[in-house]
Every structure is written in C-alpha cells, then in structure tokens.
Design goal:
The protein is α+β, with helices and mostly antiparallel strands. The protein contains 17 helices and 16 strands. 35% of the residues lie in helices and 20% in strands. Strands 1, 2, 3, 4, 5, 6, 7, 8 and 9 form a nine-stranded mixed beta sheet that branches. A four-stranded antiparallel beta sheet has the order 10-11-16-15, covered by helices on one side. It has a three-stranded antiparallel beta sheet with strand order 12-13-14. The two termini are 48 Å apart. It binds serine (SER).
Length: 591
C-alpha cells in the first residue's frame, strides 16, 4: 500500500465507525501564539478537548500535516523527519479505551495486515499522582496480545501533553496517559548491535531503530490547575495520532523512512543532482536534504518566505542547512545542480542568496579551527559574526563546530544578538520547543480586536479587503490583507477610531454553530486560505462583525479596553500588514 492508500483506508475505517472527517489545520497556525507550526493533530482541537462542543460532533478523524522543529537534529536516522502527516482520530467525551484500542488494533492487523507478532505495546506505569493504566493492559490482553508484548513505562515515555510530562505542563494545558504501538523490524538488521547503545539492553523505547513507534492513543483526561495539580477534565477524551510515513515503513517493510514511496523519488533526484549514491556516509546528508526540502516546500506552498524571524527563520535554516549538506556531498554549492532536486523558485532564490557567503563562511570556519592557522577565537562572537556577515544560522555554525569538537552556547550567541538589535527575536526556541507560552488574557482581547479590525477595514477601505493571514502574541496583533496602497494617516485614524467605537459600545460577542454554506451566505467573513468543515463555529460581535473562527474571544468588546495602531507595512504586491496593540499594553518596539 502507498501512503495515499493507507491514508484513505484509515479515513474510511473511522468514517465507518461514525467519525466525521475534518479538514486539516494550516501548517502555519493562525492566531495561535503558543506555536510556530502545527505539530500535532490535536493542536486545532484543544478547545474541544477541554469541553467546547465541536461543530462536527464527538467523533472526528483527519490527516494533519505537521512540522516539528524540535526534531531537526534527529533527522538523518532511519525514522525521524521534521515534516510528516499525522493520522488522527478523536473521541470528544464519547468512546474511550475499550473501543479505541480494539479499533486501532483492527485497523493495523486487519486493514493494513501488519503481522501481530511484529507489534508491541507500551502503557503508562503510573506514578505517585496517577495510577498505573491497568485498564489498557486488560483490554490489550483481551484482544489477544501476550504479556511479553506489553511493556510499562513512566511518564517520560507514556504520558502525552504538548509540553511533555505532567510537571512541565503549564496551567490550563491538557494531557493524559497514553498507550503506544511499536513495529519490530527484527534482529536481522542488527540495529542495536551497530548502534551506540549496543552495551545496553534493547527495548521498545531504545533509540537504536529496531522498534518503530507507529501509533499513540492518548487518553486525554487531565488539565493542569493553578495550584500545579492535575484535575480531571469534564469529559474523558481519546486523541490518537499515527505517523503516516512510519505506518508506510511498516506496511512497505522498510526500516528506512527515506525508502518509502514518497521519499524514494526525492532521494533519486538527490543522487542525480549530486552524482553520488545513497549509501554509506552519503546517507545522512541525503536524508537531511530530502527531509528539509520537503518541509521547506510545504512552508513555501503556504506562502511563507525565508526571513530572520519566527517561521521564516526556520524556513531559512532548513534551506541553508540543505545547502551545507549539498556542498558536503559535492564540494560546491551550484544552484543549477541544486535545482535538479527541486525546482522551486522561492527556494532557489534563497540558495542563490546563500551561495556566495557559504564558501566564505566555511573558509572562515576552516581557518579559525585550523590550529596552525588563524589565532581567531572560536566563540559565540565568532558565530555571531558569521550570522551577521554571511547569514549562517547559529545552529549551522554550532553543528559544524560540534563536528570539530568545539562547543558554543546558544545563550551566549543570543545575548550578543539581543544587544546588537533590540528588535530581533529569533527562532522558535522559546515558543513551543515542547514548552508552551500561557494563553494570556491579552491574546484573547487581541483576537476579538482582530475581528473588529477585519470588519473595520472593509467598511473604510472597501469590500475587496480579504484576510491574507494573521498572528497574535500577548503584545500585539498582526493582520495581513489584500490592498494595493498604503493607508493614509487619515484612514489609519478612521480605522482606529471605528474599532474603539465598537469597544466603547461594549458589544456582546456570541458564538453559534452553523452550516458552512449558511454562514458564508449570511455574510460571515472567513480566512479563505483555510479549509473549513461542513459545520463551523461563527462568532458575532453585536451586529458589527460576523466571522468563522474557533475562538477564544472576550464576552463583550468593553473588555478589550481600547486599541492603537502601531504601524503598517507593505508585504509584497497588493498586500498590506497592520500591527495593533492594546492601549495600555503598548510597547514601543512591538512588531
Ligand atoms: N497527540 C498525540 C501525538 O501527537 C496523539 O495524537 O502524538
């Protein structure tokens, strides 16, 4: 079976079990300050797992494109990728462990026809706060799984929340014990014997590569409270996630994810472009190029451009890291050859930008690390200079230096960067590298203000205004829209005044579930780049605005207090960007 066939079989299987298929969320989330990229299927379902009714019901299924920046350094082994599709099914307070484990077992063994003896199970061992998951063990046994295929692990392995173990979960974050399914590639590949773990015992969660996690049923039951304890959620939910590419590995019986049907052609084109074979020490750089370019393409397809900030910086890092690996394989970075792998203009433009400085930068590193040569100190300042002058993302310098046994700290580099430009904010580091920022009151206020801004722009500038994207942090909202000229000072003032007028009126914010067609026909605004399910949640602000949205919002506009437009920018032909902050929370450098 190909990945497409596996995906279809999964969606059909759960549709037959009365699940509604929901559209995947965009890879780059809108209005979610907690994460730069969608990195799990449940991300778009957080409010519903917390208890809000979902417009499509209590049983949902989808296939969600995900990107995990935190796995970037793992890419190169037999199973990690930064971009992947996650098959997911959810019970929102409907079925629970008994149905979930039986169904997923049926899907794996009857539909995908994976041999039972190759499948292994892990369950939560329990700790001082939460009991061992005896129930799951019992269910697995009732399904015919033998004792020697079921293993227990602590929270580090069998607890799932977006932030990790219970102690790492911030207030308001949800999580629960989970049960994972592993596929055993068997002893014949000598994974363990050939790995750095060879002196230790091999087990399900060993990183040698023999056992591959192919699915995870999370029993989403708890929410972290202010006093740092776990409180049961109003309803018991199921959140299943299974990596499509990994399922394909098991089905296609290849322990190398880069040999499944979707990666094979990419690897082939890398072989052609580099004139090297996918073997021996070429494998790691080729895997990195294949993964990073697939991720980069998915981001570019969503309209992202390489930059030095947030998501754009991650994209830049992916492309430039592929360029470094390409040069490692071929001895030069020739963009014409590079374009044989992927002929994507935005990507090649970035390669061209980096081409000249790559050689200079690498020569500098060589000279500085050659003991007989330069007396230059290789430290954070050195990495900062490479970043400033030659556009080397810090992580690339760090990786090259690491291979020469030189360590430099990101915190030292960041200090230099911060003092150089108070404005600059890098990377994804603080934003959800497993950790979450708290959902703050300010972001909720700004979320409602975004709806007010959208409607206001249409009233003042005209109905041609369409949302192109938006992004909200606790400090400001950013709104992109279609319009072909800068707003005059007078227009900006009018926009600000009209929003503040609606705030003063203290209009109530109400929520309703409607059929998508009904909502659109009634004039509800939407972010048309997103795919919506057949039923949607619609938020109305008095009679002023009506918009498709998942929330959260304030109860009435008075809670916002007041807003101020900070600045406007052009973001390319026919597109504008406006930044707005709360009146009492304005920071001069907000952007
Ligand atoms: N949330 C879990 C995961 O991402 C299962 O969907 O692995």
């Amino acid at each position: 079976m190909t990945t497409d066939q596996i995906k279809k079989a999964y969606l059909d299987f759960f549709t037959n079990k009365k699940h509604a298929v929901i559209p995947p969320a965009p890879l780059i989330p809108q209005d979610d300050p907690t994460t730069l990229f969608n990195n799990s299927g449940m991300q778009q379902l957080v409010p519903y797992l917390k208890g809000e009714p979902h417009p499509m019901g209590k049983r949902l299924v989808d296939s969600q494109p995900c990107f995990r920046a935190e796995d970037i350094d793992e890419v190169g082994d037999n199973r990690h990728t930064t971009y992947f599709e996650m098959l997911g099914n959810w019970s929102l307070g409907d079925y629970f462990k008994k149905e979930q484990l039986a169904w997923i077992w049926e899907f794996l063994t009857n539909i995908l026809k994976l041999p039972k003896e190759k499948l292994f199970i892990s369950v939560f061992k329990g700790d001082k706060n939460i009991r061992k998951d005896e129930e799951s063990i019992k269910i697995w046994k009732s399904l015919g799984i033998k004792d020697n295929h079921i293993f227990q692990y602590p929270a580090e392995k069998n607890w799932w929340s977006r932030a990790g173990t219970p102690d790492k979960m911030p207030t308001g974050e949800i999580g629960g014990p989970d049960s994972e399914i592993f596929y055993d590639f068997g002893k014949e590949y000598n994974f363990h014997e050939k790995s750095e773990y060879k002196d230790k015992k091999c087990h399900l969660n060993c990183d040698c590569g023999r056992y591959l996690e192919i699915g995870n049923s999370v029993f989403m039951q708890y929410i972290k409270t202010k006093n740092n304890s776990l409180k049961p959620l109003p309803k018991q939910n199921v959140d299943f996630g299974g990596g499509l590419e990994r399922l394909a590995q098991a089905v296609q019986k290849t322990p190398d994810i880069f040999q499944i049907n979707i990666f094979k052609p990419i690897i082939k084109s890398i072989e052609k472009a580099t004139n090297k074979k996918y073997q021996g020490k070429n494998k790691t750089p080729m895997r990195i190029i294949a993964d990073h370019l697939r991720s980069a393409k998915a981001m570019i397809d969503q309209g992202l451009e390489p930059s030095n900030k947030q998501q754009g910086y991650v994209l830049r890092r992916l492309i430039r890291r592929s360029a470094v690996k390409f040069r490692q394989l071929t001895g030069e970075l020739n963009s014409q050859n590079f374009s044989k792998i992927i002929d994507e203009p935005a990507l090649i433009k970035e390669i061209n930008k980096f081409q000249k400085s790559l050689n200079k930068g690498l020569n500098l590193i060589d000279r500085a690390t050659n003991k007989d040569g330069s007396c230059q100190k290789v430290d954070a300042q050195f990495a900062f200079n490479l970043f400033q002058t030659h556009g080397f993302p810090f992580e690339i310098t760090q990786e090259i230096l690491k291979s020469k046994n030189i360590k430099i700290k990101k915190s030292d580099f960041n200090k230099l960067k911060k003092s150089h430009s108070k404005k600059s904010k890098s990377a994804s580091a603080g934003m959800f590298k497993g950790g979450l920022e708290d959902q703050s009151e300010a972001t909720t206020k700004l979320h409602t203000a975004t709806h007010l801004l959208h409607q206001t722009l249409r009233q003042i500038l005209g109905d041609h205004i369409k949302q192109e994207g938006s992004n909200i942090t606790a400090k400001r909202l950013r709104f992109d829209f279609t319009h072909d000229q800068a707003l005059t000072d007078d227009q900006l003032k009018k926009v600000e005044n009209l929003i503040n007028k609606q705030i003063k009126k203290d209009l109530s914010v109400t929520k309703k579930i409607e059929k998508l067609k009904t909502a659109i026909n009634s004039g509800a605004l939407a972010f048309f780049k997103e795919n919506y399910p057949d039923k949607v949640t619609v938020y109305s602000i008095g009679d002023f605005s009506k918009e498709l949205c998942g929330g959260p919002h304030v109860n009435s506009t008075g809670e916002i207090g007041g807003v101020k437009i900070i600045k406007q920018d052009s973001i390319g032909a026919g597109k504008r960007r406006i930044y707005v902050a709360l009146k009492n929370g304005i920071k001069k450098s907000a952007h």
